[in-house]
Write a structure and sequence with these properties.
With 306 residues, the chain is an alpha/beta fold. Helix content is 52%, strand content 13%. 36% of the residues are buried. Bound molecules: NADP nicotinamide-adenine-dinucleotide phosphate (NAP). One of its GO terms (cellular component) is endoplasmic reticulum membrane.
């Protein structure tokens, strides 16, 4: 019995040590960039970004072009994509290709494949996603967009990975960044469908990383919390809520930092605090009522409808 408790104690200590090491690595990377600037460019000539017309996807498009990659922007609204393409070409001198596609549909992938033919793709950012309710909402009260959400948040990740991973595997090089969410780290009542779709992304991504790590491919899932974008109705930026540009610049420092991270130090710390809350507290009716009332009021006071 005594040995059993010692064994359990050692396991718990080891688990905390691993957590501390991950956290320490994040802090280290926050203050000292370790991957050379040429690292992203060395993955290949082109980066493909889904949901590139605004928010986080737009920020990745600019940042990767600044790192010397040509970019393929995939999104719904051509006008927005054209404007971004012109700006990227003028400011960075990189080539830009735009592809119009609506990821709530599942018949778009041949069209995307056609447009990617012949490109040496080094980076894929599976960024597109939809959030059916920004304010905490019961499942039955959320907009009935279930199939669209499944296609946009899940099918897109699988199909885009399938299209591009093959090429990366034969070149034995590549980086896939999957933009999940902090809500994926444990079940989130009042965002149940969105959080579950993002948890799928984490599971898929981490399993895939194990399969393809030895083939030279980095697959990383990012689990950020609040970022000010159209999805979050341009919520006010503060010490926790990041701008898309800020988040993306920081997250690119961490691409070699394991198969999952929050993408920025502030969210890594927030995740650490949330993990400290016992689940019986988090899932208590008092906490859910706090989310429905005080948190909803906070969101309403801090969002902007542009
Ligand atoms: N913002 C946050 O706080 C936050 C936090 C954690 C995780 N995330 C995740 O990060 C990703 C990007 O979020 P975001 O806040 O940047 O999103 P966003 O502001 O809603 O959208 C950015 C872009 O995605 C495009 N898009 C949306 N639905 C699409 C569809 N069905 N087909 C094609 N393109 C579509 C939009 O197209 P149009 O240009 O046509 O509008 C827009 O260009 C999402 O997966 C989200 O779940 C966001």
């Amino acid at each position: 019995m005594e040995q059993f408790f010692i064994f359990v104690g050692v396991l718990v200590c080891l688990a905390y040590l691993v957590k501390c090491m991950r956290f320490a690595k994040c802090i280290f990377l926050h203050f000292w960039k370790v991957s050379p600037r040429s690292f992203l460019q060395s993955m290949g000539q082109w980066a493909v970004i889904t949901g590139a017309g605004d928010g986080i996807g737009k920020a990745y498009s600019f940042e990767l072009a600044k790192h010397g990659l040509n970019v393929v922007l995939i999104s719904r609204t051509v006008k927005k994509l054209q404007a971004i393409a012109t700006e990227i070409e003028q400011t960075t001198g990189r080539s830009v290709k735009i592809v119009q596609a609506d990821f709530t549909k599942d018949d778009i992938y041949e069209h995307i494949q056609e447009n990617l033919k012949g490109l040496e793709i080094g980076i894929l950012v599976n960024n597109v996603g939809m959030l059916p309710n920004l304010l905490p909402t019961y499942f039955l009260d959320t907009p009935d967009e279930i199939q669209s959400l499944i296609h946009c948040n899940m099918t897109s990740v699988i199909k885009m990975t399938q299209l591009i991973l093959k090429q990366m595997e034969s070149r034995r090089k590549g980086l896939i960044l999957n933009i999940s969410s902090g809500t994926a780290l444990f079940p989130w009542p009042l965002y149940s469908l969105y959080a579950a779709s993002k948890a799928f992304m984490c599971t898929f991504s981490k399993a895939l990383q194990v399969e393809y790590r030895a083939k030279g491919i980095i697959i990383q899932v990012l689990t950020p919390y609040g970022i000010s974008t159209p999805m979050t109705k341009h919520i006010n930026i503060n010490i926790i809520t990041k701008s898309a540009d800020e988040f993306v610049q920081e997250s690119l420092n961490y691409v070699t930092n394991g198969d999952e991270n929050c993408g920025c130090l502030a969210h890594e710390i927030l995740a650490g605090f949330l993990h400290l809350i016992p689940s019986w507290v988090f899932y208590s009716s008092a906490c859910q009522s706090f989310l429905l009332n005080q948190y909803t009021d906070y969101l309403k006071q801090n969002i902007h409808t542009k």
